[in-house]
Amino acid sequence: MAEAPEPIPWLSKDALAYYAPFRDNVRQLIKNETEPDDYYVEGGVLGHTVTLAAGTAYEATLRVYEETMLESTRVHCDCCRCIGWHHHPVTRKQYHFIIHTDFRVDLKPELKGKRICQLCTAALDAREKVCAACGENDSETSILDYQTHLMHGMLHANGCGHLKRINGREAGSRKLSGQQLMGIWEKICNLLRAREVSVEDVSQKYGVEFRLLNPVACGQTWYGTYGYAFGKGSFGNTAASHCNAAERLRGFPLESIRDDFA
Fold it and tell me: What tens digit of pLDDT does each residue of 229-259 get?
């Protein structure tokens, strides 16, 4: 018998709905449902906080970072360029929806005296400022560029955006699974009426590219189960070639693989 899915943490006003364009909806959400910080997190970035599933075992803190582009150091969006949306005009604001990592080094005896680099997730001596693995000082980097967030989705004021990161239990989350985090992101997009969202599928499972492993088992990528489809490939890869490759992998005889490990 299949186990019941874990509940998706959400706002206390479960029936909350907005019907205006995204730019108006996100303002209403920030105004009515979040608590603003008393200070700017960094140049042009103001943070807001809202608690999801308050008082339950899945309680999570959702941070909404409102980035004003005229004051930001990152005017152009690399994600838009990669997906082919570079023709979109630069918007005045963009909104980052982030659930920060709840991973604790002190709960891992093997990491005693170490810390985790926020940019490459490598373990390094707690006294070191510059990571030997990536050569960066994460304390001097924008919090919006950290790789350790459990969830990071960004939406431009025009309603188009990018899912940048989902890190479930296998990637350090103590409470929330990847499905729960994805459910939160889906609810955010539906509530605010986002127009279009891209994702770069770089997820791995046991060292294998998950975008190859999941189609073999389920016929589509993990993100595909949430409605994401092939958008733009690299090095001449097209939607047709991607589908053909997935079908060939799915039809590959297991006996041939077993012989390789015999």
Answer: 887 777 777 888 878 877 887 887 777 777 7
The pair of structure tokens assigned to 233 is 């490939």
Maximal C-alpha separation, the chain: 63
d(CA 114, CA 106) in angstroms, rounded, equals: 9
The pTM score is 0.90
What are the Cα distances from residue 68, in Å, to 100, 110, 164, 229, 254? Answer: 21, 41, 19, 30, 53
222 contacts 188 by C-beta, under 8 angstroms: no
Q: Token pair of 169, please?
A: 């239990």
pLDDT digits (tens, 9 = 90+) for 13-52: 888 999 999 999 999 999 999 999 999 999 899 999 999 9
Backbone angles phi, psi at 107, to 5 degrees: -90, -5
| DSSP bridge pairs for 95 | 66, 155
* Residue entry with tokens 């308050």: 54
CA distance 123 to 139: 15
DSSP for residue 242: H
In whole angstroms, what is the distance from residue 211 CA to residue 182 CA? 16
